[in-house]
Design goal:
elongated; 2 domains; Porin; 223 residues; 8-stranded antiparallel barrel; alpha+beta
Length: 223
């Protein structure tokens, strides 16, 4: 082998070794990038529930039991608070679960009997869902959820009048499908801002509420 051929052989071997090293580096970098999408995350949220309370139905119940001259009002669409814990399997799929609660929905009424009635209803929710993410670019993503939620409604009612006071407390629970959509913005590699719309079932419509929507604004952190 001439000196020139020997020199070319050495150079070709070095080039091949460099290409192998580059391929391994690219493969390792790709695996590291993929791992960036995997791991635990948590987010907390505040929002508003669209309960659509029908006070006319409650008025009708009171009329049926003898309350006359009813004048009533409702404070609905309560504030909500929640926290979710999840695990991201890859860029597109995760599983998450958590807890949410609402402020009171308030019903107030007076009658000519005379009588004063105050009723308060509060919801608590436990849920677990499969969560999907579709990146839009520039840090924005679309999100979707489908799962199961257990919604508990606690109601307390107090009636006073004619020197008599009575209190009643009831509770109902419904476990059913929950679903939702949203938009997420990744502020940093770990922190995100999200707007979500989720739908739940209370399991009862005798107070004007059955399925209801909850709008939330949340902040998340991926570990």
């Amino acid at each position: 082998m001439t000196g020139n051929s020997y020199f070319k052989g050495i150079m070709m071997n070095k080039i091949k070794s460099g290409l192998v090293a580059a391929a391994l580096l690219a493969s390792f970098s790709g695996a590291t990038l993929a791992d960036d999408n995997v791991g635990m995350y948590v987010y907390g949220s505040v929002g508003k529930a669209q309960t659509k309370e029908d006070k006319g139905k409650v008025d009708a119940v009171l009329t049926a039991v003898g309350v006359t001259g009813i004048s009533s009002s409702v404070k609905d669409n309560p504030n909500t608070y929640g926290i979710q814990l999840g695990y991201q399997f890859n860029q597109n799929w995760a599983i998450q679960g958590g807890y949410a609660a609402s402020d009171n929905v308030e019903y107030r009424a007076t009658g000519t009997n005379p009588i004063t009635i105050a009723a308060d209803a509060r919801a608590t929710v436990w849920n677990i869902s499969a969560a999907g993410t579709i990146p839009f670019g520039s840090g924005f993503s679309g999100t979707g959820r489908l799962g199961v939620a257990s919604v508990n409604i606690d109601v307390s009612m107090t009636a006073t009048g004619g020197g008599v006071s009575a209190t009643a407390v009831t509770s109902s629970k419904k476990t059913d499908v929950t679903y939702g959509l949203g938009v997420k913005y990744d502020m940093t590699k770990n922190a995100s801002l999200r707007i979500d719309l989720d739908n739940y079932n209370t399991g009862t419509s005798n107070n004007g509420i059955n399925r209801f929507n909850v709008w939330t604004l949340g902040v998340g952190y991926k570990f």
